[in-house]
Amino acid sequence: MWYNDYKGKIIDEIVKDGKVGCDCDFPGTINISKYLNPDELRNKYEDNIYIDCVLMANTIPGKPVVEAFKKGIETYKEMGYPEEYQLHHQGGAIGYTGRDYKVNFQTTEIVQENQGFAWNPSIQVLKVKIQC
Predict the structure, then answer these.
(1) DSSP the chain
(2) Model confidence pLDDT, tens digit, residues 64-91
(3) CATH classification of 2-131, choosing from 3.50.50.60, 3.40.50.720, 3.90.230.10, 3.30.200.20?
């Protein structure tokens, strides 16, 4: 996997990198702020991807988007990161010029058919963005 190789060498220390990944059927952006431990990074990466998948799986047309948001927050807590969601916005609906809106506990919008979403889960040192 990409986190074991960076320009032909084992990643020991990265201060800032943006990497396009494709672990699923659509491309995503993975931002690594800093890490020194490959096992820690791998665990946080997998946890973060799982949180993003929960958010996406619960972004259902006709349902309030806040329901998906709340499922994501529950998942942070279940995975041992109860406060992480407060450190960065969690994303929301996307349009041609950026976010249509960022989701929070007060969001009242309903998910529309074929509406684009980019959730933004993050765990310290790692942020994953998968847009669809």
Answers:
(1) -GGG-BTTB----BSSEEEEE-SSSS-EEEEE--BS-HHHHHHHHHHHHHHHHHHHHT--TTSBHHHHHHHHHHHHHHTT-TTGGGGS--EEEEETTEEEEE--TT---BPPTT--EEE--EETTEEEEEE-
(2) 999 999 999 999 999 999 999 998 888 8
(3) 3.90.230.10
